[in-house]
């Protein structure tokens, strides 16, 4: 199983969980079968590239996304690609993974989706 955590910097277990999953520079991925840690650069349309994060992460074989929060539309996009989403991740990537493994992160639902991420922010 591959677990993905949006990362606020270059990625890795010591990096902090990025709180806006679509705009983070990298995603850290842990393969639970091999314990390998990898990173994927965010090249989605949010960062001037192509595609949406759920699509990119699906192509990388991600099964589970751990994040601080995200909008209902994003939750639905991840579900379309067969990726389970859990919310409430914070601290370092490693701490978020440990919290998920301990059953401390709730699965994302329309009830706990972050309403502030439902619309585009206007500057």
From TrEMBL:
Dinitrogenase iron-molybdenum cofactor biosynthesis domain span: 14-101
Coiled coil: none
InterPro entries, alphabetized: Di-Nase_FeMo-co_biosynth, DiNase_FeMo-co_biosyn_sf, MTH1175_dom
Name this polypeptide is given: NifB/NifX family molybdenum-iron cluster-binding protein
Lineage, broadest ranks: Archaea, Methanobacteriati, Methanobacteriota, Stenosarchaea group, Methanomicrobia
